[in-house]
Amino acid sequence: MRALFEPFLNCQLEEKRFEFTEANIAFHEFIMKHTKCKVLIDITNSLYDQMRLIRFRTSAYVSRLESALAQHLQLVDAFEQRDPARAENLMRAHIEESSQYIVDSDSSGQSYMLP
Fold it and tell me: Residue 50: how many CA atoms within 13 Å on its side-chain side?
């Protein structure tokens, strides 16, 4: 998983935002596949288009890209260290920050929902 994000280290993320977004999606899909939690997988699959749209739209903000990259690398560390408690805490923080970012952006008049 770490290899997914190596191309984005020491570069201008803004210039590679679309590539980063594709890596981001692959990362999330990998995690979902390996959760082996059918309910969570079903929910994620039903929201696939909405989640993909949100990831692409938030990729317009460099600060969000940088934060997501740092969070993903921390998650990879936790996975590699086989530390499920740390991974869970990091994933919760990642989801909460992402959700808050969407709420904050949405309150500025930007829509993240499909028409």
Answer: 10
Pick the most confident of 4-18, 34-48, 53-67: 4-18
What do you get for the CA distance between the two ends of the chain, in Å? 33
* DSSP states of 15-77: GGHHHHHHHHHHHHHHHHHHH--HHHHHHHHHTHHHHHHHHHHHTT-HHHHHHHHHHHHHHHH
Helices 84-107, 48-58: axis angle to 10 degrees equals 70
Q: What is the model's pTM? A: 0.80
Token pair of 102, please? Answer: 């969407």
Tens digits of per-residue pLDDT, 74-111? 999 999 999 999 999 999 999 888 888 777 776 655 54
Write the DSSP string, 84-113.
HHHHHHHHHHHHHHHHHHHHHHHHTT---S
